[in-house]
Amino acid sequence: MDTTIQIRTNQKTKKSAQLILEKLGLDLSTAINIYLVQIIAKKGIPFEILTENGMTVAEEKELLEDIEWTKKHGKSYTSTKEMMEDILAE
């Protein structure tokens, strides 16, 4: 038995997706059904979700934590020369 799903999306997003899907020989309903079947098959989102910075959520979280740690505990230098001398001394 079929059922209906109603979703809200931006008109521009919908139109852009429809134009791409049309080139692939698909309509929006078929594409969404493919997506739902893949969610079931993969037992989750069937693609990697990336942040606006192109990282996974976990990668971005780790990077932000590293930045915070470095701000609190890392070395700082007043010049590039001072930094290079420190690096070469090690």
Q: Give the N-terminus to C-terminus distance in angstroms.
A: 70 Å
Mean pLDDT: 94
Radius of gyration of CA atoms, rounded to a whole number: 24 Å
Low-confidence stretches: none
**Strand-residue fraction?**
under 5%
Multimeric state: single chain
Helix share of residues?
55-70%
Task: Give the structural class.
Answer: mainly alpha
The number of helical elements comes to: 4
Count of strand segments: 0
Topology (elements, then pairings):
Layout (H helix, E strand, L loop, with lengths): L10 H13 L4 H15 L14 H17 L6 H10 L1
In words, what does this structure look like?
The protein has 90 residues and is an all-alpha fold. Helix content is 61%, strand content 0%. The protein has helices at 11-23, 28-42, 57-73, 80-89.
Keyword list:
90 residues; mainly alpha; 4 helices
Structure summarized in a few sentences:
With 90 residues, this protein is mainly alpha-helical. 61% of the residues lie in helices and 0% in strands.
